[in-house]
């Protein structure tokens, strides 16, 4: 976008025929288009991209969501950054075997020379339409008369060309300038992780100690900045993961299990596996408590909310399973998962030996080492999610429904069918993990709580600023609780989602300890705190009944954060094809305005008249100044007569 904003005459496009006016017939280009959300697709956008008659676009969000589906992501998400390549399972590389996201249009990866805004507020859309109808509607096939309604969009981006170029410019500025002008920033945040049995977070786990990793992603994306609801693509899986962790921590003999379990929540996975690639890198470089050799097996929860006939599909890597020892361990893993679903309202089935892994964090671990693992999804082949990485991946997409007339507090506590369904998945996974870790007792008592799942779905999808979230976070970060949840990774960290996953996990798996605020915030001063093993948080607590004061308390947990910044930026390999190199441009402001514009003829006449008046005033000033002694001479005193 232009540094001074992009301006054009508004034209409303509600059907494809309306494009003819913009692309050919309209006499007043460039046009600023108000586009119906159902027409926001690759075919239309490439037509607009190929013309100079368009100066910008405002997309009115479609309600209800487009029935045919909409995904601006790739048909093969994270292509080139997973495990499959010309050297490893070439028959599966570039989604040759399975196209995972068939509705993917790739719009998010196109370069548009004009600004594109999303209008979520129907009132804003109506204001623009009304201005268009009052001034811009073509009359009998001919152009409307002036004045015309125009719109100006401001969204100038400072970065240019590519990550390599913008990072090089930023680096030079930082090196040689006192006040550097940084033009882009790498996407970064933190992974959240915790263990069932506490480990020394600043030390190293014994080489012989085996750990089972359970993983999910916690970020999503859409075409538009910071619009990333991610209901099915992220929230359904990490909420199920959190419920699994809670169910396991309630088991009485977890401290006796022969294998530890690590609950891992990766950030930035949407952008070519930022979080998982960083954790693997840290493990390889001995910058993480675990090494790759400690990993016994890997269980990943992917998209799990849109199950068909309660079936959950188990995906494995056919290439690593050609190794006999890996095959034995994978077979054991699959059998334990299948047996754990007996009697539950979830059926686990194998996706098939010839089927590759779907896009998943597990692929980054497989790139480093043959690890037995499984990815659980609600789809056997292509995604059941028709709104992957889009603004339509909302609570409605995963069939979350509430009765009318509920208060916010009642809605928070209401147990939806979606919550019950995800709790069933969490129960099966928790039971399987218990068995996998060496648990010998009956698993029927291991049960995920649908009420907890309901609260989490409400908080992460509908309203972050709710009473439960308020009670479990630190007082000094209560400002993170915005109304509408978004799960974009961003460049300032930690983002809201990371903080909330961290504190929800601590609340569900931690212990309330009897420490004062001072002791809780400075645990190193308390001899029995075991600071290396635990994290301590002084949280707000619930509101006292009939009062505005809260009852704060101290929570001890094994929840930690680890950096989720692509190794490419640590290594200064900005053009890397091994690691993610996504950056976000900096900008000054993003805003829009509408106003009336006069005809070119009137503008020229106004300019000419203005210039004429200016010239006349200059000439008048010159002559007045030249004759000032005559025009402004002091008159004689009539009383002074000369003889």
UniProtKB/TrEMBL annotation:
It comes from the Eukaryota. One of its GO terms (biological process) is Notch signaling pathway. Keywords: Cytoplasmic vesicle, Disulfide bond, Glycoprotein, Membrane, Notch signaling pathway, Signal, Transmembrane, Transmembrane helix. Residues 3-159 form the Nicastrin small lobe domain. It is found in: Cytoplasmic vesicle membrane; Endomembrane system; Melanosome. The chain crosses the membrane at residues 604-624. One of its GO terms (cellular component) is cytoplasmic vesicle membrane. It is a single-pass membrane protein; Single-pass type I membrane protein. Gene3D superfamilies: Zn peptidases (3.40.630.10). Pfam families: Ncstrn_small, Nicastrin. Belongs to the nicastrin family. Essential subunit of the gamma-secretase complex, an endoprotease complex that catalyzes the intramembrane cleavage of integral membrane proteins such as Notch receptors and APP (amyloid-beta precursor protein). The gamma-secretase complex plays a role in Notch and Wnt signaling cascades and regulation of downstream processes via its role in processing key regulatory proteins, and by regulating cytosolic CTNNB1 levels. This is Nicastrin. The lineage of its organism: Eukaryota, Metazoa, Chordata, Craniata, Vertebrata.
């Amino acid at each position: 976008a232009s540094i001074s904003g992009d301006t054009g005459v508004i034209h409303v496009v509600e059907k494809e025929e309306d494009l003819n006016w913009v692309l050919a017939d309209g006499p007043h280009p460039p046009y600023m288009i108000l586009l119906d959300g159902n027409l926001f697709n690759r075919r239309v956008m490439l037509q607009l991209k190929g013309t100079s008659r368009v100066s910008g676009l405002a997309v009115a969000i479609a309600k209800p969501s487009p029935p045919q589906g909409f995904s601006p992501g790739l048909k093969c998400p994270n292509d080139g950054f997973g495990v499959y390549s010309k050297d490893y399972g070439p028959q599966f590389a570039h989604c040759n075997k399975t196209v995972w996201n068939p509705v993917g249009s790739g719009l998010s990866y196109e370069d548009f020379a004009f600004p594109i805004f999303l209008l979520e507020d129907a009132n804003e859309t109506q204001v623009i339409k009304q201005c268009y109808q009052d001034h811009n509607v073509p009359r009998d096939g001919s152009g409307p008369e002036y004045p015309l309604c125009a719109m100006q969009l401001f969204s100038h981006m400072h970065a240019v060309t590519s990550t390599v170029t913008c990072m090089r410019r930023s680096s030079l500025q930082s090196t040689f300038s006192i006040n550097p002008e940084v033009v882009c920033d790498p996407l970064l945040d933190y992974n959240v992780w915790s263990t069932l049995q506490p480990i020394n977070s600043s030390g190293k786990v014994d080489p012989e100690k085996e750990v089972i990793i359970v993983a999910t992603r916690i970020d999503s994306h859409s075409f538009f900045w910071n619009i990333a609801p991610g209901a099915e693509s992220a929230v359904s899986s990490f909420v199920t993961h959190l419920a699994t962790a809670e169910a396991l921590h309630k088991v009485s003999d977890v401290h006796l299990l022969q294998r530890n379990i690590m609950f891992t929540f990766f950030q930035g996975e949407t952008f070519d596996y930022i979080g998982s690639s960083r954790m693997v890198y840290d493990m390889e470089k001995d910058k993480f408590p675990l090494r790759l050799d400690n990993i016994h097996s890997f269980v990943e929860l992917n998209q799990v909310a849109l199950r068909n006939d309660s079936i959950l599909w188990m995906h494995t890597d056919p290439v690593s399973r050609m190794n006999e020892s890996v095959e034995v361990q994978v077979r054991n893993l699959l059998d334990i998962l299948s047996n754990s679903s007996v009697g539950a309202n979830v059926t686990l089935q194998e996706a098939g030996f010839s089927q590759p892994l779907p896009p998943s964090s597990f692929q980054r671990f497989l790139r480093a080492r043959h690890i037995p693992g499984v990815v659980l999804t609600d789809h056997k082949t292509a995604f059941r999610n028709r709104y992957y990485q889009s603004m339509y991946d909302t609570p409605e997409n995963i069939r979350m429904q509430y009765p009318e007339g509920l208060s916010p507090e009642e809605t928070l506590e209401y147990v939806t069918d979606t919550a019950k369904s995800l709790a069933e998945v969490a129960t099966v996974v928790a039971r399987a993990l218990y068995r996998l870790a060496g648990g010998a007792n009956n698993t029927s008592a291991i049960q995920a709580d649908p009420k907890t799942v309901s609260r989490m779905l409400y908080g992460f999808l509908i309203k972050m600023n709710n009473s439960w979230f308020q009670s479990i976070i630190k007082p000094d970060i209560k400002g993170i609780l915005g109304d509408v949840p978004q799960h974009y990774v961003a460049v300032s960290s930690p983002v809201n989602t990371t903080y909330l996953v961290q504190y929800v996990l601590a609340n569900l798996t931690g212990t309330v300890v009897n420490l004062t605020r001072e002791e809780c915030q400075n645990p190193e001063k308390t001899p029995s705190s075991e600071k290396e093993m635990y994290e301590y948080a002084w949280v707000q607590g619930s509101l006292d009944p009939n009062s505005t004061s809260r009852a704060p308390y101290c929570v001890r947990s094994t929840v930690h954060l680890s950096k989720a910044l692509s190794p490419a930026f640590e290594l200064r390999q900005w053009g890397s094809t091994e690691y993610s190199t996504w950056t976000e441009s900096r900008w000054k402001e993003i805003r829009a305005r509408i106003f009336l514009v006069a005809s070119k003829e009137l503008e020229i006449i106004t300019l000419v008249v203005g210039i004429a008046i200016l010239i006349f005033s200059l000439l008048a000033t010159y002559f007045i100044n030249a004759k000032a002694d005559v025009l402004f001479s002091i008159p004689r005193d009539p009383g002074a007569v000369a003889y």
